[in-house]
Design a protein that fits this description.
This protein has helices spanning about 15-25, 75-85, 120; strands at about 5-15, 35, 40-45, 50-55, 70-75, 90-95, 100-105, 110-115. The protein has about 120 residues and is an alpha/beta fold. The strands form two sheets. The chain has a four-stranded mixed sheet, with helices on one face. It has a four-stranded mixed sheet with strand order 5-8-7-6. The radius of gyration is 15 Å and the shape is globular.
Length: about 120
């Protein structure tokens, strides 16, 4: 990666393989721009990346963390079905900011994310 994004989200994970598959296939972030045995990097835009970094620390806090990353999706119902069919629990709720629909869930290790509807963001 020669042109590094200016901004990034870094998520430490214990099982890089499971998380790579989750973010690549279920959240449909696409193929990583960098992928190794210790780190996987997805480019989310011209100036933003999401990095999964392998950590051997078994004590990583998930449920009590205040970190929550979010993104916009064209069809959150389709995403909801894909996640639930893969065995992940997600909750559809009303976004407090714009009143539109949003989806709250977590990855295989309990890292939280929020998905906002593209229609609500554009409207």
């Amino acid at each position: 990666m020669s042109d590094l994004p200016r901004f990034g989200i870094l998520i430490k994970v214990n099982d890089l393989t499971a998380c790579r598959v989750f973010y690549r296939d279920l959240l449909e972030l696409g193929e990583p721009v960098f992928d190794s045995t210790f780190q996987t990097v997805f480019l989310l835009g011209n100036d933003l990346s999401l990095t999964l970094e392998l950590s051997e620390a078994k004590y990583l806090e998930r449920a009590s963390t205040s970190v929550l990353w979010s993104f916009v999706c064209d069809d959150i119902e389709k995403l909801r079905d894909r996640l639930e069919n893969a065995g992940y629990s997600v909750r559809l709720e009303t976004n407090r900011r714009d009143g539109g629909s949003c989806l709250r869930g977590c990855d295989p290790e309990g890292n939280f994310f929020l998905v906002r509807s593209a229609a609500a963001v554009q409207g």
